[in-house]
Amino acid sequence: MPSNPKLVWKFAPTSRSLRRVVGLTLVYFVVCKLGLKVAILHPSATAVWPGTGIALAAILLLGYEVWPGILLGAFAVNLTTAGSVASSLGIAAGNTLEAMMGAYLVNRLANGRNVFNRAEGIFKFFLFACVVATTVSATIGTASLVLTGFGRGVSWESLWVTWWLGNMAGAILVTPCLVLWSTPPLVTRSRQQVPLQIAALISLLLVGALVFGGFLSPAWQGYPLKFICIPFVVWVAFELHPREAALAVLAFSIVAIASVFQGVRDVSTPNESLLVIQVFLSIAAMTGLLVSLTVEERNRNEATLQQAKHQLEERVRERTRELEDRIVREENAERALRDLSVRLLRAQDEERRRIARELHDSTGQSLAALAMILSEIGMKVGSDPELSRQIDESEKITRTVSDELRTTSYLLHPPLLDEVGLKAGLRWYIEGFKARSKIGVILNIPESLERLPTDLELMIFRVVQECLTNVHRHSESPSVEISLCNSNEKLTLEIRDHGKGIPADRLVALTGSGLVGVGLRGMRERVKAFGGELEISSDTRGTTVRATIPLRPSLPAADT
Question: Full-prediction pTM beyond 0.70?
């Protein structure tokens, strides 16, 4: 059944609708007969009228087409109680119009049968269905009794107020219970809460029977002890779902009305006393529904937030796994690239070593032999001055080429590096650099520094070689300072010049984006191959290159 059934004023009988009408007629008749059992002011006007709640719930749940069931039930109840056919028809018409008007207002303005899904719907239901719509039945019913003469002896104001408050209490007590129980709960129950819920329900019923049943001392009868029940109503509302809380408050109301009715006739104004109880029960029902629905909304929101949290955490975990996988792939790719760079650098060093050996052992020896032959020829042709001069020049050129070739082979791979170590190799290279570039170089290496692993010494030599080449080409520095020290199991190599420095944008490119030259990339890869870090800093006072390399005990030292 839709939440807002269309308004149907005529009854179109079908097998299903007929069964519904007959069932509603019987239920309405029985329940309203019980309500009239507690009628005090007039046989047809009672402060307890659950029929309003049943009629309103029937139209909200089944549709407007069941209105004949309300009309027939109300007519039968009043005709078998007191009054004539005319008065009974008037009362039945008023009850039917009351239910249809209340349902229509709730459907149009308060979300229909879903009115009790949110706390704000309780206020709309109370205003439209309990306050406004019940005035229709009270007005038509009172007028029917007065106009047909069955209201003699009772003021119409008392009849109207009793009718109105009784119908209002019936609507607020019965309708929420029936509507809420027609749908499953929106939040599931936790087994751990069941004992506490049972305790709250039993406590409410026991307190209601104790306060309203006359079990207290007569000296306490004048005190407003009924308000003691409010905390228990709130407790029940906190512990139970809205539909269970509505049923609990209805059961509490039945206990209270049954208990009060036993002694209400002994007071001077029994009808007013019963109306006061109905007003109190209506307020208690409103309070319980509001609290229960507020707690239910909070629980739903918490469940939604918890679900959203779990989904977000799962998405974060998935994203984290993706990022971790991506990082692993990038690290593997970077490691593979670094390994390749290291292998290329090693291949380059081996090729330099091979070329240097070839130049020294083969080409160098050939040039030396050529120089010796030219010297011998020069001594044999001493009688020809011009030929002797040409041979002497050829010998000088040959020896010059031999010296330059020897220098080139040493630059490719200095033999001192293998023979006596890093310190001697650096000193030899720096002396040659100063002679070629006219740049002053200061080398600071502690004498206590022992031989390092051969690969590590070669790496340090290549870094110094590349840095001095860059100083000569770019810095315009008059001097360079080189220091190498060993502290805390780390080697620190620092090369500092006093030139014009590196422009800021170029420095950012060198240190941040990875857009580096071949020389700097080679230095960085060489240092990283030994687990070290290469840093570059520069300003207008010069540039500093600092390499920090951890000493690994597993690396064997070079043979001395």
Answer: no
